[in-house]
Amino acid sequence: MTPLSGTVEAHGIGGQADLPISLELAVSGAVAALVVSFTVLVVAWRRPRYDGGAHPGRPAPAWLDAVTGSAAFRIGLRVAGMILALYTVLAAVLGENSLTNPFFGIFYVWWWVGLVFASALLGPVWRAISPVRTVNAAIARLAGGDPAEGLLRYPDRLGLWPAALGLFAFVWLELASTHPTELGSVRLWCAVYVGAMLIGGAVFGNRFYERADPFEVYSSLIARLSPWARVDGRLMVRSPLANLATIPPSPGLVGVVAVLFGSTAFDSFAESSFWVRTYQNASVSKFLLDNVALLVFCLAAGLLFGIGSALTPSRAGVPRRELPRHYAHSIVPIVLGYIVAHYLTLFIDVGPQTLARASDPLGKGWDMLGTASVEPSYWFSYHPEILATVKVLAVVIGHVVAAVAAHDRALSLLPKRDQVTGQLPLLAVMVGFTAGGLFLLFSS
Questions:
Q1: What is the mean pLDDT of residues 237-256?
Q2: Residue 263 lies in a domain
C-alpha cells in the first residue's frame, strides 16, 4: 500500500521480529489448526447444514426491521452517500495536488479498506449508499424510465467478470502504476469508473451494478460474513456461514476472489527485502516487474484454487469446469482475514488523519467539520507484539471459517464414497495459502 505523507508506514510494525513465537512455529501452528479443523469437520459434520439457504436465521428486533426497511432510511443513506461523494469531488477537483489532500485518504483508506470493515459489520453498505446508483436512478426517473430496467438484458455469461476487471484496475493503480498518489491519475481513474458505471446502468439497469460495479460486488461479498440478511423482505439475524452459503456461483466469482487475494499477497510481497533487492538489481524497470508480478499473483491464486476445486469429484451433475465457482464463496473469509491483517493499522492510523484533513478539503486552513484536531493514537505502534498476534489470528480464523464453508459445500457436491478424500486437493491448496500468506505477511 502506498504510504501517505506524514503517516507511519502501515506495515512496518507488527512484523516477524514482533511475533511472540518464531515465524516458522506460527506457520506450523496455523497449518495444524487448519488440518485439525478439517479432521473435526470430517468426524462431526457429515451433512450439509447451510447449502441452499436452509437456515434463514431469527427475526431481528421489530423496531430495527421497521427502521432499516423504511423508505426514509433508504433515502437518508442515498443522501449521505451523495454528500460524501460531492465532498470528495470538491477535494479532488479544487484541492491541492499534495498528499495532504484528503481525497487520497478517502480513496485509498475509507473507500477501499473502510468499506470492507463496514460491510462485514453492517451488510452491503456500498449498495445502500452508492452515488452512481443514485445518479442513475435520478436520470432514469427524469427520463420517465425505471432504473431497475435498462435498454438491454445483462448477459448472464459475463457474470462478475467486469467487476473482477474493475478490481484489478484499482489494485493496479494502487500497487503497480507509476503515479498512485498523483492527483491527476487518481482523478482520471475515478472519472472512468463513474462514466463506465453510469453508461452500464443506463444500458443494463441495476443488474449491472450487482454484477459489474467492483465496489458493490466487493462490498456485497464481504457483507455475506455479516450477521444481517433480508429474507423475503424481513431483516434476519443469522450465522455468517449461512449468509456465506447464499453467494451465487456466478461466472467470474473465482476471478473476483483471485484478484482480491492475489493483490493483497502481492502487496505483502512487494515490501519484502527479496523483492526490493530484485528490482534494484534488475535490468528492467520496477514498473514492468511490479506489473508482471501483480498479474502473476492474481493468476496464481485463481489457478491454484481452480485446480484444487476441479480435482474434487462431483455427484450433483455439476461440470468439473464449474466446480471452482461453487467453492469460491469459501475464499471470502480468507480475503477478509488478510484485509484485517494487512490493512488494520493503515485504517486505524490513516483513517483519523484523513478525517482531520477532510475538515480542510481545499488546503485553506479551514475546520469545516470541526475535526481538524483529530489525531491517530498509533496504539499498535507501541504494541507491535499485539498487532503481530492479531495478524496471525485474523489469517488463521479466516482460513478455518473457509474450511468450514468449503466442507459444508463439499458434502452437497461430493459422492458419498469421496466425502473425505475428495476434499484433500482443496485442503492442500488452503494449507498452501495459509503458509504462503503468513510468510508473505511477515516477510517485510
A1: 95
A2: yes
Structural domain range at position 89: 16-441
- In the predicted structure, residue 9 carries a pLDDT above the cut 50: no
Instruction: Label residues 274-297 b or e (16+ Cβ within 10 Å = b).
Output: ebeeebeeeeeebeebbeebbeeb
The whole-angstrom distance between residue 377's C-alpha and the CA centroid of its chain comes to 25
Q: Are the C-beta atoms of residues 326 and 313 closer than 8 Å to each other?
A: no
How far apart CA 340 and CA 337 sit, in angstroms, is 5
Q: How many CB atoms lie within 10 A of CB 299?
A: 14
Does the pLDDT of residue 12 top 80, yes or no?
no
Print burial letters for 382-398: b (CB count within 10 Å at least 16), e (below 16). Answer: eebeebbbbbbebbbbb
Is there a domain that residue 295 lies in? yes
| Residue 235, C-beta contacts closer than 8 angstroms, at least 6 positions apart | 59, 60, 64, 65, 68, 69, 228, 229
Residue 1 lies in a domain: no
Q: What is the pLDDT of residue 17?
A: 60
Q: What is the mean pLDDT of residues 248-254?
A: 96
DSSP conformational letter for 236: E
In sequence order, which residues have a C-beta less than 8 Å from that of residue 148 and are 6 or more positions away? 205, 206, 207
Q: Count of alpha carbons within 13 Å of 438, Cβ hemisphere only? A: 29
Q: Which pLDDT score is estimated for 419?
A: 82
User: What's the domain count of the chain?
Assistant: 1
Residue 5 domain-assigned (yes or no) = no
- Based on the number of CB atoms within 10 Å of its own CB, is 321 exposed (0-12), middle (13-18) or buried (19 or more)? exposed
Q: pLDDT per residue over 143-195, tens digit each? A: 888 888 888 999 999 999 999 999 999 999 999 999 999 999 999 999 999 99
